[in-house]
Amino acid sequence: MEKAPAELFHNRQLLKQLLMQKKLKDRLSSTVSKDTSGPRVPRWYFGGIASAGAACITHPLDTMKVYYQTSGLLAGRQTLVAATIQVIKKNGFLALYNGLTASILRQLTYSTVRFGIYEATKQKLITHEQQILPLYERMIIAAFSGAIGGLVGTPPDVVNVRMQNDIKLEERFKRNYRNAIQGLKEIYRKEGPSALFRGSSMVMARSILVSIGQLAMYDQFKYWLVSKASMAGDKIQTHVISSTFASITCTILTQPLDVLKTRIMNQSETCTGQMIKKQVIDLYRNSGVRGFYKGFVPALIRVGPHTVLVFVIYEQLRIQFGMNLR
User: Fold this and answer.
1) Which among 141, 58, 132 has a CA at the least distance from the CA of 100?
2) Which residues pair with 324 in a beta bridge?
3) 12: which residues sit within 8 A by CB, 6+ positions away?
4) pTM over 0.85
5) Per-residue pLDDT reduced to its tens digit, 79-107
6) Are the beta carbons of 51 and 107 closer than 8 angstroms?
7) Where are the Solcar repeats (predicted)?
8) Distance between CA atoms of residues 313 and 107, nearest Å
9) How many CB atoms lie within 10 A of CB 279?
């Protein structure tokens, strides 16, 4: 017996819907190789490599961000360009790269962990029928991966902040760490192991917000561009636009915590709840709400290029050297 016209129409619509879902999924997050039908996904260490590569390019902007956020006579009273010229005249161009080894070490720990956990968990939970995990699930995964990554990356972050802050200290107050490893040893020897995790609660809180703003929201913006604007998921312009929106979201979410984290890490005392409270009160009394967004423009200028570079490098690593899911 022949099928009724209504049933045939329903089956055609269902087949068309399934084909569109498969096409969208392939455009969104996978590169299909010639010898396999599965999508290509990142390896666990791609995030650390991409972030370290981006840090090498954007480190001077990070240095100037720290310069603006920490206390000092010059901080916050000059434009970014004027402050940069002042630093170069006083300390030389290479001063902008103070703490580069610590920054690279931080990315190889912090970013490797958070990208690795996020991607592995996301791939584990997503089903064959899904195009993308729901945003709230990705936010939870990103928050968890960010917390673990933040804890692991705190020691090199402490060294990084201190090395960068040397550009505005008098010679007798400079710490003059030669590199990240020597800085870690000096802090451990003079201040004890707890000093290596000074401000870790702030780092973890910030890392949670960074990971939500970068990882979860990058996927979301990319999904919107592919599904609503019909852009190809493996094109660089899609990666650039998605990561640009993600960087803006990330900066808005993290700037208040970033200011507090930088100020606390630059202290010599052990970080306590009382110290965090005191820093919040002092900052608010001295600068008001705007104080929590001190250095917002330098931070955005730094986070924007860094985030774009991270995801462009990350996606290219995935496309060229990723694993094929069958």
Assistant:
1) 58
2) 40
3) none
4) no
5) 778 888 888 888 888 888 988 999 999 99
6) yes
7) 42-124, 137-224, 234-320
8) 14
9) 19
